[in-house]
Design goal:
477 residues; alpha/beta; six-stranded mixed beta sheet; 15 helices; globular
Length: 477
């Protein structure tokens, strides 16, 4: 059986290399072996860095138009291979096909945004004569590429979150060493194939798969790496921050996102949207709806409608066209959350619906009457779980939302413009969605958080700024 399983290779300096060691990649849904994937060692990581160093010089000397054309072609190639890409997602991370296709569509758009931004990188003129000693001088700024970008990406959006790092890096004239999550290397390797077909020069993109404990430290500590961009857990993010020294760092570290339901003219549509935000990709989304605060007079009706809508979700094989929710990324993750649920129930919380686990599949779960101090509420669940809590005043609801160590995005439904502006000002997050869920994101908007949700911003234009250095040039005339 194993002889029919595809053996993957590392992508270094524009060539495909056999790894000295490998591991079996298994489906989270049925534990079937999908492929054998290289475990890069220190020598192979060093080769990738050497390659990226050369690639950085090549892409730095390319014109904005040339970089833009490569990104545009990569977008077209991905569009041509979109169904193949979606099937890889369904296999390697159990993302239901409907959601997988949506991610590919977004990724195509993300590379198009990067192609456009490649032609928009510019500085400004500085009015030197505004200062007493500035007369007779002229100055302007330019943005220059940093060099090598180390990109460390998660399992949950393995095409689009790679695109949010690789796209702007190339647009800005940098090279990249990409380390994908262990469970989702196939999407990263297909991305390398796509850029190879798009004509990206050798060495500009290098993909090394394997253990984070081996690859991550080498990338983060190497002096040739000028920036680390990471999406993942708080613990790993803090470790990266401690090791990078003066390197630039962008960290997107997750959240336990909240939405306030204050008032609405259409409660059914609000419920439907909140269910979508809570259970999309089994809740394994950084801005998944984990906490919902509902005004008292709407609370009972909201909970009942939420349960009924949740019951309509189809749970099953990610390869099925009908599936809404499938397995979590590992059975151990489902077991972790199951343990949190048991502790919550013992503390008096009510599991109003769901809570059952079958291997790596956890039922969509609704919790009421849960304390804000429970792990299931105050920590990031990253699972198909939502806490619904009533409140009396908007001040109380905002305090509930802010009572968190995280602050990525939040949402509020209200028919009051005054309340909307008040909440937008006072909620402590990187992005406030008015009359929508915190899970809303389009790929050109600035995206990032405060508190333990990270530092820096993604969104192509904003990533380009992070991935360039501002240089000032002055003339004495």
């Amino acid at each position: 059986m194993l002889k029919n399983i595809e053996k993957k290779k590392l992508f270094i300096s524009g060539k495909w290399h056999e790894g000295s060691e490998s591991y079996e990649l298994k489906s989270p849904y049925d534990d079937e072996v999908i492929a054998t994937v290289p475990l890069a060692n220190s020598r192979e990581v060093e080769e990738a860095l050497d390659s990226a160093e050369k690639g950085a010089q090549v892409i730095k000397n390319m014109t904005s138009l040339e970089r833009s054309q490569i990104l545009e072609k990569a977008s077209r190639v991905l569009e041509e291979r979109s169904e193949e890409a979606a099937l890889i997602l369904a296999k390697e991370c159990a993302k239901p096909l409907k959601a997988a296709r949506a991610e590919i569509a977004r990724t195509i758009e993300t590379y198009k945004f990067a192609a456009e931004e490649a032609k928009r990188i510019h500085g400004e003129t500085i009015p030197m004569d505004a200062a007493k000693n500035g007369k007779g001088r002229f100055a302007y700024t330019i943005r220059e590429p940093l060099g090598i970008i180390a990109a460390i990406t998660p399992f949950n959006f393995p095409y689009n979150l790679v695109a949010h790092k690789v796209g702007p890096a190339i647009a800005a004239g940098n090279s990249v060493v990409l380390k994908p999550a262990n469970q989702t290397p196939l999407s990263a390797l297909l991305t390398a194939e796509i850029f190879e077909e798009a004509g990206l020069p050798a060495g500009v993109l290098n993909v090394v798969t394997g253990k984070g404990s081996v690859i991550g430290d080498l990338l983060v500590k190497d002096p040739r790496v000028k920036m680390v961009t990471f999406t993942g857990s708080l613990e790993v993010g803090l470790g990266i921050k401690e090791k990078t020294g003066l390197k630039k760092v962008t960290l997107e570290l997750g959240s336990n996102s909240a939405v306030i339901v204050d008032s609405t003219d259409d409660l059914d549509s609000v419920v439907a949207r909140c269910v979508e935000g809570a259970y999309g990709f089994a809740g394994q989304v950084c801005i998944s709806v984990q906490r919902i605060y509902v005004k008292y007079e709407l609370y009972e009706q909201f909970v009942n409608k939420f349960i009924e809508k949740t019951k309509q979700l189809v749970i099953g094989d990610p390869m099925s066209e009908d599936t809404d929710l499938s397995a979590m990324i590992h059975q151990s993750e489902a077991e972790r959350v199951e343990d949190w649920l048991h502790k919550a129930a013992k503390s008096g919380a009510v599991i109003a619906y769901g809570g059952k686990r079958d291997k790596a599949v956890l039922q969509p779960t609704i919790i009421t009457e849960g304390s804000s101090k429970l792990s299931i509420s105050c920590q990031e669940a990253f699972a198909p779980i939502v806490n619904i809590t009533p409140y009396e005043t908007l001040n109380e609801a905002i305090e509930f939302v802010n009572d968190s160590n995280y602050g990525l995005q939040a949402g509020i439904y209200t028919t009051s413009v005054q309340k909307a502006f008040d909440a937008a000002q006072r909620i402590e997050v990187g992005g406030v969605m008015i009359n929508d869920i915190p899970t809303y994101r389009v790929d050109q908007m600035p995206y990032g958080g405060v508190k333990n949700s990270g530092t820096g911003r993604e969104g192509i234009k904003y990533s380009v700024e992070e991935m360039t250095e501002l240089k000032l040039v002055t003339f004495k005339l």
